[in-house]
Design goal:
The protein is built from 21 helices and 19 strands. By secondary structure, the protein is α/β, with parallel strands linked by helices. The strands form 4 sheets. The protein has a 7-stranded mixed beta sheet with strand order 13-12-14-15-11-16-19, with helices on both faces. A 6-stranded antiparallel beta sheet has the order 7-6-5-10-9-8. The longest helix is centred in the N-terminal third of the chain and has 30 residues. It is globular and about 75 Å long. About 35% of the residues are buried.
Length: about 550
């Protein structure tokens, strides 16, 4: 029986359209790349979708959970762990322990028969073979490699102290720090001076974790290395800097955005990590509960008007907007974005980078010119001034669908913020379709979370809830990954009338009659479901 093709499987599952398949097959003819790779790189499907389709092709189970490496079997591949990691990186197969506790071999591509023969030669086998997503294997490889990075970072620092800075150790130090941060899926690296030391911290899942401290005498030279990578002149103690550079981490290109400010003890640097080609998270996978997801899905179907995503810095607003754009993009529409900076490539979308320091490249100025490009859908990275607010309103009133963000705490506060930015109640009532206010909560590690016996919040939560403990799987933190907690305000006819009548006190009451629940209610849901903890909700939102 002939093996069913990937494209046909995805069509049957309604993961792609015939038009998308035809377009990718045309690319395949020119590039000779695998169809699955093209579909993922074009952000049409997720890596998980391809892995599921491959599993169906070969008739093996699909395993989509995080992979736990079977270390004993890994050592059978090669007693030298570094060589064993090289093997699994080259051949894309990992010995794992399933969530049932049974061993298995996890393959990215089960059709590579050479891999099976190599494993037999090493006397490595398992009763169960599974297909897993490519990115899960890459995360395993990253986790295994950073265990060696810890040692190498310490060795580099030791070499600095004994042999000095002329050995290239500072360059190795920065590379090792960035490699580790990228492997840990960190968003930022901070290099901060104090009176006695230069301190490195890494931001993971919204929190900063100390990585290493070195003697203060090395700080200026460390900053010089970072500046050199960004092709910036040597540090000026009285000048702030904003720059960037491209960094290659284990054959993956990563954009690094540099921000530097002068402080009492020297230059403080923050490095934002923007991984190119990073898999976009689908709107369904962001973590919205079904009710909120359906409200957002309904709003983005409206062919014109404004949809706002609000929240503080680091609340996932841009990720949500990218997910929405990826869900609605089509060859039938022209989509243009204005961003500061462009954080991820979205194929099929024209992305423009603005520069608020330039009179000609400000959000407000380019938004006005953008309308001459005949777009159907526009994304404005942030409404930050009256000029941009005015142009966004104008775009929506001329039949365009517009997405943007605001820095506000609640959905209803966003209406007041738009008034502050010069829009009238009539402008707001007639153009805004939906406001999403969101935060990101760390998720409890499913392997080690335990019942929280603190009775203080029992009446508020209304049932059993969990707290973080810490295990090897979560690096002792008790949390793994983050999820969205949100409130969604749909601008119904009644709410629109309340806005136009300047009756803001009535908005929340009207919304609650329509099923609106505030962000605190959504956070309580996540506590009850064991997704997050009281401690985390208190940190991010407050109970």
């Amino acid at each position: 029986m002939a093996v069913q093709k990937i494209g046909q499987i995805l069509l049957q599952k309604n993961k792609i359209t015939q038009e998308q398949l035809d377009s990718c097959l045309n690319i395949k003819k020119e590039t000779k790349e695998k169809l699955g790779h093209i579909l993922v790189s074009q952000r049409i499907v997720r890596g998980e979708d391809i892995a599921e389709a491959i599993a169906q092709q070969v008739g093996w189970p699909y395993y989509g959970k995080e992979l736990e490496v079977d270390i004993e079997t890994l050592k059978k591949i090669d007693a030298d762990i570094k060589k064993a990691i090289d093997f699994i990186e080259t051949h894309r197969v990992v010995p794992i322990i399933l969530d049932t506790g049974k061993p298995a071999l996890a393959y990215e591509d089960p059709f590579l028969t050479k891999v099976t023969e190599l494993l037999k030669d090493k006397r490595v086998s398992a009763k169960t073979d599974v297909v897993v997503p490519k990115q899960h294997i890459e995360r395993v490889i990253d986790r295994l490699r950073i265990q060696g990075d810890d040692n190498s970072i310490a060795k580099i620092v030791s070499r600095l102290k004994t042999q000095g800075m002329a050995t290239g150790a500072l360059e190795e130090f920065i590379s090792a720090i960035l490699n580790k941060a990228i492997a840990l899926e960190a968003t930022d690296v901070h290099i901060e001076p104090s009176a006695a030391t230069s301190d490195v911290r890494i931001r993971i899942d919204g929190l900063l974790y100390p990585e290493i401290s070195v003697e203060k005498r090395f700080h200026e030279n460390i900053i010089n290395v970072v500046y050199d990578k960004a092709k910036e002149s040597p540090p000026d103690s009285f000048k702030s800097r904003d720059a960037g550079f491209r960094f290659n981490s284990r054959n993956r290109d990563v954009d690094i955005r540099l921000s530097a400010i002068p402080t009492k003890h020297g230059i403080s640097v923050a490095l934002r990590i923007l991984e190119l080609g990073r898999t976009l998270i689908s709107l369904e996978d962001l973590g919205y509960n079904k009710n909120l997801y359906e409200k957002i899905a309904d709003a983005i179907k409206i062919p014109y008007g404004i949809i706002l995503v609000t929240g503080p810095t680091g609340s996932g607003k841009t990720t949500t907007l990218y997910s929405i754009l990826n869900a609605i993009k089509s060859p039938l529409f022209k989509i243009i974005t204005l961003e500061d900076p462009v954080e991820n490539d979205v194929p099929g979308v024209q992305q423009c980078e603005v520069d608020e320091k330039s009179e000609e490249k400000r959000f407000g100025v380019i938004t006005k010119r953008l309308l001459r490009q005949d777009p159907d859908i526009i994304l404005i990275g942030e409404i930050r001034d009256e000029e941009t607010a005015r142009e966004v309103k104008q775009a929506s009133m001329t039949g365009h669908k517009v997405f943007s963000t605001l820095h506000t705490n609640t959905a209803i506060e966003s209406i007041l913020r738009l008034l502050d930015l010069g829009l009238t109640v009539s402008d707001i009532g007639n153009t805004v379709n939906c406001i999403v206010s969101q935060r990101l909560l760390r998720k409890l590690c499913s392997r080690c979370k335990e019942v929280d016996k603190d009775l203080k919040y029992k009446d508020i939560v209304g049932g059993p809830f969990y707290k973080a403990k810490g295990c090897e799987a979560c690096s002792g933190k008790g949390y793994r990954g983050r999820t969205v907690v949100a409130e969604v305000l749909q601008i119904t006819t009644d709410i629109k009338n309340a806005i136009i009548q300047d009756n803001f006190q009535a908005i929340e009451g009207i919304a609650r009659k329509d099923g609106f629940r505030d962000i605190r209610s959504d956070a309580l849901r996540l506590i009850k479901e064991g997704v997050s903890s009281v401690e985390e909700v208190n940190r991010v939102i407050g109970l």
